[in-house]
Amino acid sequence: MLTRKNKLLLLKLLSLFSVVRGYNILMIALAQYLASIYILGYDLPLREVVFDINLLFIVLSSALVIASGYIINNFYDAEKDLINKPKKSMLDRKVSQRFKLTTYFLLNLVAVVIASYVSFRAVFFFSAYIFGIWFYSHKLKKVPLLGNIVSATLAISPFFAVFVYYKNFESVIFVHAIFLFLLILAREMIKDMENMKGDLAQNYRTIPIIYGPSISKIFIGMLALLTLIPAILLIINFDVGHMNLYFISCIIFLIVFLGLLTKSSTKKHYVMLHNILKFIIVAGVFSILLIDVDLVLNRIL
Predict the structure, then answer these.
(1) More confident site: 183 or 142
(2) Smallest Cα–Cα separation from 291: which of 228, 227, 234?
(3) What is the gyration radius of the CA atoms in the chain, in angstroms?
(4) Is the pTM for the entire model greater than 0.70?
(5) Three-class SS of residue 106?
(6) pLDDT value at position 50?
(7) Sign for the pseudo-dihedral over CA of 204, 207, 213, 216
(8) What are the sequence ranges of the domains in the chain?
(9) Is there a contact between 28 and 62 (Cβ–Cβ < 8 Å)?
(10) How far apart are CA 205 and CA 207, in angstroms?
């Protein structure tokens, strides 16, 4: 039987997990490892990749910095989230702002210390990453379009860290990166459509607030169309194994997305569109396994 004190502690831990979006961090860590095994370090023995201590430290540093980024973003968006996400905001407020800031600085410090075991370049990268997240949350988030672009760039930065570590400069990597970047950028702009009420109350200058939802939908539609280009290139010009089934599915989903976008007009519609893009991104993580279904078995043997 849990005591009242233990229940309160459990609620605070749940609140902190909600603030740092632990499920997202786990997904990014998984994506980093799968990308390392199947794409970036595909020519290395499986054991060498999986048990590479430097890769582990890069993934851990990424996870800690991302967690701290969610915390500082939550700190600056506290008032806005009360309007846009009242239920989640009430759970997040179970942890004090002071505790959030303390945790933010602690996570960043530990991330840099862990990165120092990899190399000075890793320390520089994660220090710049920490600053970039803070500057985005503090200033750039309120700048129309630039804020969206910076947010999407920060979202793919953990993969850039692994990419630099393996020094894999094949063109297929860049096409994958462009595909992911465009998807995330479209999702960021859809989120602005969802959050119009809170953004307007807090004087955020987003594209749907300044130019209206119609212009914003044109931008999002253009991004969705642009995303089709790297998807088609990855199917036709590159050997991605059975992952081509994923990209074919993405093209179908994006066409459906475009159709629904033209008819969308309420927050419920925008949430649905957001979920479609989120599903495509998450499915992409697991679809990496389709690049070569026999790869892991062959490398073990």
Answers:
(1) 183
(2) 234
(3) 20
(4) yes
(5) helix
(6) 87
(7) negative
(8) 18-166, 170-301
(9) yes
(10) 7
Rounded to an integer, the average pLDDT of 228-238 is 94
**pLDDT tens, 201-231?**
777 788 888 888 899 999 999 999 999 999 9
> Which tens digits make up the pLDDT trace of 14-71?
666 666 677 888 899 999 999 888 888 777 888 888 899 999 999 999 999 999 998 8
For residue 7, which phi and psi values (nearest 5 degrees)?
Answer: -65, -40
What fold characterizes domain 18-166?
Tetracycline Repressor; domain 2 (1.10.357)
Please, which residues have CB within 8 angstroms of residue 203's CB and are 6 or more apart in sequence?
A: 142
- Using alpha carbons, select from 62, 72, 78 the residue that is nearest to residue 24: 62
Q: Give the total residue count for the chain.
A: 301
The answer to whether the beta carbons of residues 159 and 62 sit under 8 Å apart is no
- b/e sequence 131-168, b meaning 16+ C-beta within 10 Å: ebbbebbeebbeebbebbebbbebbbbbbebbbebbeb
